[in-house]
Amino acid sequence: NAGVMQNPRHLVRRRGQEARLRCSPMKGHSHVYWYRQLPEEGLKFMVYLQKENIIDESGMPKERFSAEFPKEGPSILRIQQVVRGDSAAYFCASSPGQTRSQAFFGQGTRLTVV
Amino acid sequence: AQKVTQAQTEISVVEKEDVTLDCVYETRDTTYYLFWYKQPPSGELVFLIRRNSFDEQNEISGRYSWNFQKSTSSFNFTITASQVVDSAVYFCALTGGYNKLIFGAGTRLAVHP
Q: Which residues of B touch A41 (CB under 8 A)?
């Protein structure tokens, strides 16, 4: 049973470009969480999704950031018109249910904006 | 509001010393989970332990032990006889009704030979 898969592991984008980060949850998991870790900081919750639904996006920046988790395929975190401050590690976690279940983390995508 | 405080930003020890990493949390939930994760220099998150709010038993796993005290809202982590491979950033985290995690700022542990 493969773990949570994130790709790419490293992504370099120029300012103004778009970044698309992918997260394939563990088999049987229908809940996905995205977190951002700025350099030298802890992880901050961004968004919680179930298949085809955004449940909680309280941690998402108001502009340029969006997330989806379609019926088929991976969850996507999309950052439009990236700026240097978007450089961070983005982690995805998945869980089989909403409560009383443990979320498992992927290895993260390290985004560098140049 | 939920909050996790790891007051120790950095700790430096010499190999074989014992070290305790502190974690204090705030929550109004009666049911919650507490976690510790390790983030080595390679960057991935390594799960260490999950503890639910109804289980105050201390836990030991090899050189690792955890002390959960609900009365002081603390969930401290002790590494006995530290090794260089223990050098990492350690995060304490809290979750409420669903699995949204609130992380502390982390404690960077450096173990020197």
A: 105-106
